[in-house]
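Budget justification, computational time. The allocation requested in the original proposal was used primarily to generate structure tokens for proteins on the priority list. As evidence of use, we reproduce two of the resulting records. The first is shown immediately below.
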Amino acid sequence: MFKPSMVLRYATTAVVALACCLTIWGAPQPKDSPVTESAQTAAQKEQALREQEAKRGNEEKAERIKKKQMAQLYQAKQWSTAGLYDKASTTVSDVLKETDDPDVVKEARAIMEQNVPKAPSWLDKIGLSKATLFTFAAWWVDAVVGIAALYGFLKMVQFLWSKPKRHKWRVGAIAEGTTLGLADVIVQSLSKWSGKTPAVTSGLLKLERLQLSASPRLELPETELDLADALKSVALTFGGVSLSGIANAGKGLRGWLNATRPSINGKAIQSGSELCVILTSRDSKGTTNTVTASVPATATSSLGALIFNLADIKSVAESASYKMFYLISKKESTVIEAEAVNKLREGMNLLSQYIYGQNPGQLETAYLAFRQARTMQADLYEAYLYEGITLDLMLQHDEAIKRFEYLEEKLKETGTKSVETGKNSEVPSVDEEYHRSLRLKATYNKAISLFRKYKYAATKDAAHVLESLIPNNEKLPNTEKLPESKLGSMALAARATVIAQYPKYWQEELCGDRSKDVKEVLGRKLRQGNAAKVESWIKDVQGQTANLTELLARIKVDPSWEESEKQQLAWAIKNALGSVYLNCATYFFAEPYEGDGWKDRRTEFLTHAYDAFQECAMLITPGIEILTNLAKVSLELDRVQQGCNYLQQAIEMNSTYEYAYYRQAKAWEEKGQTAKVLKILKSFPANGNPVIERFIELFCKYDAQLHPA
């Protein structure tokens, strides 16, 4: 139960307690009390921390507000740039109302200064914003960069593809505009010239090989399946991609990869009455050259169609392909030069046909080709050499000698220059070495033409010229010295052949002149020492040919000697032996003679001569020289029909060969065959003017016309 006294008691107690507390709180604390001082410091630090917390919070809040306001100002700036001036102005005003930050205020004022409407630009007029323009431009930049990167990658692939093949010419498309298969013949002809041209051998004459300065590598088209054509009608797709489209793309890519490679393209067409071939080359630098060749139709069919024979098709293909091959094999050559060299090649083909008996009537045509070649190009010295050789084979020895002497003068050594520096050098360039070899061949062939005039003075001159070609006058030249050793060996063999002619001129050589008086001739034969001298010529030739036979055995395994060169040397050895036996038999041991011993000796020599010349005919296709010698031996052995057959073969090779006509007519006259004599006289060419005195006497004796109709 609540009582008033209790309330009073409790109130009094509370007042006393309150008074005590106030007394204690207000009482001063001792300064030196550690407890009191620690409590005070802690309270102060706590208060300071609370203030810092409050300040940091205010600063962070202010920073957030500032960032928000700056973001609003940035948006306002974008609107101003985009032409939304009112919207930008409203945003800036709202920000200024909410802030007094100097940075925000400064940025806001700057925006307000720029937030002024401008005159509409051309972009505004067409309704295109700068942002759109920049987006469009960026797209184009990306596209260009992408295309450039792709192009660069493809060019690198093209370079890597072409680099290992930059020295190999690619034979591309040869368009066939005829039904003759000429394109295939052209491709075959291009591959033909990579090989070494076979040398042509003609008795003692030394021919030059037609050679190119270099032999470029060719990549001929291979038979392959063209997917573009194979899949053209195949309507198959994978993932929306057509197979034929892939094949066409591959074909185009293949062509693009080969675009920078050296290539040859062309076409074969029929133009009017001619068959034409056009070839164009393009090297890695983009330089182009075009050559052409044409041939007329040989006949017309009953339906009016033009007819081209196989030889003409092959000829026009070879002409065009050789010109092109020459241009790509010799740097800095011209089309005119290629035309001249091709004409030289054609002349050599005709000459070889004559030499090997394939078409004996081509000698005159070959001569015209060589003359045209050196006319087209004055420094095509091979043409002069071959022109001289052809003239010699046509028995125009003086004209041939002129050509050889011209070459000697033109190719006279004036010092050698190196290929790299163009300065004087002990090492000759390839061209200089070749020209030196050409000059030596011209000198050698001049000696042969002098010899083939078959006159005493010319024969002595030939011996002198040949001796100048024999290294140090060696009996056996060093086969390691090229080209001197080959030419030196042939010069030795030719000199033996020249010595073999001395019995023919024994009177001039031993007596100083030639007598036709029978007694005088017999007296000279019996004069002491003359027979021995003739025998010494035989031994000299036998000794020289024995040395050359030893050389021939040694070079059989020498790869630097070609088979044709070995055959020519073997031919020259046998020809020298045959000549010395024939000349001794027909000029010294012939009538007048004394005693059967001389007659037997003569028969022995003639037999040896026939055997030697027969071996010559087996080694090399017999030319006029061997045919004439075989005929002469046969006639001396009284084998008239055999001898006349050989002479007729010589006439078929050269229809103007006067000696063959004369010897046939004389042989049949000695046999009393007048009808055959008249037939031969009438067969002599209408444009021929005989110069052999005894042949002219036969015309007069039988009252035959010198120029029959």
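The second record produced under the same allocation is shown here.
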Amino acid sequence: MFTRTRCMTGLAAVLLTLGRADAAPKSAGLKLLEQTSDRTLVAVAWSGWDETGKDFDGTAVGKILAEESVRSFVSSIVKAIEDAILKEEANDPDVTLVFDTIRNVWPILTQSPGAFVVTAGDPKSEMVVSFGLVVEAGRRREAVDAVFERLAPHLEGAKENSVAGVTLKTLPDATLSWGWVKDRFVIGVGDLTPLVAALSDGKGTLGASAAFRRRMAAVPGERDLLLSYADATAIGRLVEAVAGPEEAETIGHIKAVLQALGLSTAEAIVGRMHAQGTDLVVDSVVLAPAPRRGLWTCVEGTVGPEAMKRVPSDAIFAAAGTFRPDKLPGVAVDAVRAVSPEKAEEMVKEGYDGFEAEIGVPIRAEILANLAGEYTLYTRPIPNPLIPQQFVLLLRIKNAETVSSALGRLDKWIQRQMQANMASEQVKTFGETSVTVHAWNLAAVVQLPLQLAWAVVGDQLVFELSAGEPGGSLEHVVKGGSSLADDPEFAKAASQFPRQMSHFSFTRDRDRMADSLAQLSMVWGMLQMGVSQQGIVLPPLPPVTDITQHLGYTSSCSWFDETGWHSRSSGSLAVADPVLIAGAAAGGVSILLPSLSRARELSKRTVSGANVRGVVTCCKIYANENDDKFPPNMQVLIDTGEMTPRQLVNPRVRNADAKDHYIYIPGHTEASPPDLVVIYENPAYVDEGINIGYVDGHVEFVRGEAALERVRDTYKRMGLEVPELKYITTRGKSLLERFLPPTDAGKK
């Protein structure tokens, strides 16, 4: 009782005052995460069902999954898909092996504490990040070993390899390694040395990092079901380190833009999920210390639960927040100025002016400047089985007459662009108040009976998307009435909100799920018939009540403080805030893009090297049949059928109009010095280095100026004129040109 009271009190204190959160007991997932490498960039950790299973089973989601009808439905779907795939691939034993492995490994992963970790490697290496999965599965060691014993015949050539003093098994190409580090099973791709070293000797661990401890303390939680961690600062350093000399200016531009947008201040993204009674609770933070800059300043101001007075009591979902639309143009100017300091304001002004001149509406002066910065969004039920909810957006405005006039002109411009009379206008009267409703019939566009309507009511600009009569939401806006603010469930949720919020939302999960299942049931029969033709038998949907009876409501909110942007979601179907998801996705992309780009480049380089090796091999075959003389040119090899034209296409060349992807140096014989160059990649179309094929038959990739010097040396030793040799360059190009395929490489 004391522990529970202490934790609840501590949680409330964090929400309201963001006090210390590190006093809470550590979950198994957090303990494991702390023992991974301090070179971790991104990690997702879980505590495992052994520790948290009972907690999760008591939540709304756990109770739903415990329903026999739901369990049967899920297992039937999985089996139907599995049977269909196995039937299709009946002659492929590898497919069966994959399914068998998943069946045996999945329980181990979910029952034991584990973590998926992305670790930074040497920026100069071919793989700049490593991916490792760590599972604290010592008690299930026999089960894990049994799985890999069954896999052994399919993992040919695996040999024991010492990694940080620990013996792992590694495939010949070194792409995959696995083994035990004490009671932890580790499997991963790339250099696992930092991860294995941290797990084995406790040195260089994430938990020893003061930055990590501070970041985790910013987010409350205990007995975590799930944790997520992304080190934005380390990701930025890695991206910068991976970039070569030719990328320096581009990286500089990107850094300047991110700084102007205020996004460079984000040092980490952290999230934790735990169970609290029947609720799931997700707390997250984007650590971006004040003072805020750029886009962060566009989310200024606070909103309170009283905003729900504008929402009718039958709303299924409602959200409210604040923003600063007047700051957006300035942020855009700052971002452009970071790259083009002399023309930034002129460029942005030309863009705005040109658009406003085209539509005939001064968007900035008459619309953006008149938005007061508060919004309310909600959905409410309507009697239409196809679209059971009405979507309403309320924007508080300063000058109703100006906004109404500007939107009216924008309305007419859109009609002219569509070349169709889709709009209508009507006056609705509510008591003594008359409101002009402007509506658009969207049926011709989206093939659904949708109406998009807008109207100005007092200081509110109202947008409504509905399948019913346009303007159906206006009566509550005009006359008021029973509101969501009076709802006991909302009042209970609001009592957990912090006092200063930039956004909050409230969802009746039971009603929303009922609507979703009703819509799904309308198409489920047709779906069953469709997939049955593919040999897949889909089970009937579980009874709606088996799911909805366990659901209540979910609330979420976000706020800023001196540490950054926080979000909290609590309820039967709690999830992370959409903005946080976007931030996490951006963090993930920022890691993956350089890695994937690097991997693609390495793959193309390998293919090109194979092309070069093929030409040299064909030359030696030709020489064997022609007095030891190499062919006069590569066309001879194509004409004699020794090779195909496709072998002379370099996948590294992005310019579709480029000619001579490879340069052949004629005049060699089998007696020529073995270190002379026979064929090399045309440097005018590539950067970083080139593949070179030599007289003795070997091929190597040589970087930078050293590669060009080897080619020049061959021309000189053979008494030939040395051509101009330069790599393609991106220095001095704009950001747009940098990411577009070159069109003039090699023509100058």
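A brief technical remark on that second record: Residues 1-23, 577-599, 730-748 have pLDDT under 50 and may be disordered.
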